[in-house]
Write a structure and sequence with these properties.
Number of strands: 10
CATH topology of the largest domain: Butyryl-CoA Dehydrogenase, subunit A, domain 3
CATH superfamily of the largest domain: Butyryl-CoA Dehydrogenase, subunit A, domain 3
Number of domains: 3
Structural class: alpha+beta
Helix content: 40-55%
CATH class of the largest domain: Mainly Alpha
CATH architecture of the largest domain: Up-down Bundle
Radius of gyration: 21 Å
Shape: globular
Order of helices and strands: HHHHHHEEEEEEEEHEEHHHHH
Number of helices: 12
Strand order of the largest sheet: 1-4-5-8
Distance between the termini: 29 Å
């Protein structure tokens, strides 16, 4: 199991860094956060330069990249701007990976080439007001009616719905003995009549943010079904494992950016006649952060290797997500502590890392749920 990056993967880092230094400056990132506007210019630049096609098959205009290639890209994007990385991950997970895995020939040919060019954006509608961690207990109904399904219900935390063209919507098509049964996924056009989107005010992740979505007698064509009728939960579980690779990579990049900012501050900020990094209380924090970063990055590439070699399990994905999320939260917290009052001021970027990192242990499956998955894998 070799985690050393290939020359091509090192080139991904190099070329992306060059591009993002120009289009995703600290001032630009701050503006996106403060004005709560998506990083459209940066996203379009990635599309123009072919980066959104990284993992797509060559026959659809992609580069045929591997999960490790994707992890390298998202780590680099997360370093420059976490929410840009999350926007890209949603497109490639739901608009490419999911559609390729479970879509019809017509769905694949219509959607995937456009996703790889940045012409279509995707999001994922799973969580509901009464089903968060208990995700498969969802109630949003899709009732068959002729050649359509009529959808009624409410979703929350559908991140990016307001800037997406399609949403992979997880619905209840039948009530059966087990709640994981009777679930069906649809590729829903976000502009269909009967869809009401409300942006939610959140502590962090304010550039793209998240939404609440109300579906009122929304007619979704039967041809929009993704995968088999009533068999959608296994597909969802598959998407969530792939999502955890992507989230972990992007957030590890963001954690590295917070760490480097705190490290430079510790080297230049003087108190009591010397740089604060010379004091053991500060240097030990930085040493601990560096250790967490290295472990997180190794775990990201390990899991990517497992995915590439079809050896990954639900527990592997849970371990990865748990460790990288908790590490990001801890690194952001310790970094802010090192900056002291400056870290608490909105003028400096550390407060954004602190706010954004708090979602890591909640969204995409809480840390507690990851521990449940790991414990179950141990026969407990």
């Amino acid at each position: 199991m070799n985690f050393e990056l290939s020359n091509d993967q090192q080139n991904i880092q190099h070329h992306l860094n060059d591009l993002l230094k120009d289009i995703c400056t600290p001032e630009y990132v701050s503006q996106c956060d403060e004005q709560q506007k998506p990083p459209r210019e940066a996203f379009d630049a990635l599309a123009k330069n072919g980066w959104l096609g990284l993992i797509g098959p060559e026959e659809y205009g992609g580069a045929g990249g591997s999960p490790t290639d994707l992890a390298v890209m998202l780590d680099t994007l997360g370093y420059h701007f976490e929410e840009l990385g999350l926007w890209v991950f949603r497109n490639l997970t739901y608009g490419c990976f999911a559609v390729l895995k479970h879509g019809t020939k017509e769905q694949i040919e219509h959607m995937v080439p456009k996703v790889l060019k940045g012409e279509l954006s995707f999001c994922f509608g799973l969580t509901e007001p009464d089903s968060g961690s208990d995700a498969s207990a969802l109630k949003l109904k899709a009732v068959h009616d002729g050649t359509d399904y009529i959808v009624n219900g409410r979703k929350v935390y559908t991140s990016g719905m307001d800037i997406s063209d399609y949403c992979i919507l997880v619905t209840r098509t039948k009530v059966l003995e087990k709640k994981q049964q009777g679930i069906t996924n649809f590729l829903v056009d976000t502009k269909l009549p009967g869809i009401e989107v409300k942006k939610l005010a959140t502590l962090g992740q304010r550039s793209i943010g998240t939404t609440e979505v109300l579906y009122s007698n929304t007619r979704v064509p039967e041809s929009a079904m993704l995968g088999e009728l009533d068999q959608g939960w296994k597909c969802v579980d598959n998407y969530l494992c792939y999502e955890r690779l992507c989230l972990s990579a992007a957030r590890t990049g963001a954690a590295r950016a917070a760490f480097e900012y705190a490290l430079e501050y510790a080297k230049s900020r003087e108190q009591f006649g010397r740089p604060i990094g010379k004091f053991q209380a500060v240097s030990h924090k930085l040493a601990e952060m560096k250790s967490m970063l290295d472990i997180s990055q190794t775990m990201v590439y390990r899991y990517a290797w497992l995915v590439e070699n079809k050896k990954d399990t639900r527990a592997d994905a849970a371990i990865l997500k748990l460790y990288t999320a908790e590490s990001y939260k801890s690194i952001a917290d310790m970094s802010l502590q090192i900056l002291g009052g400056y870290g608490y001021c909105m003028e400096y970027p550390m407060q954004r890392f602190f706010r954004d990192s708090r979602l890591a242990t909640i969204g995409g499956g809480t840390s507690e749920i990851q521990k449940n998955i790991i414990a179950t894998s141990l026969g407990l």
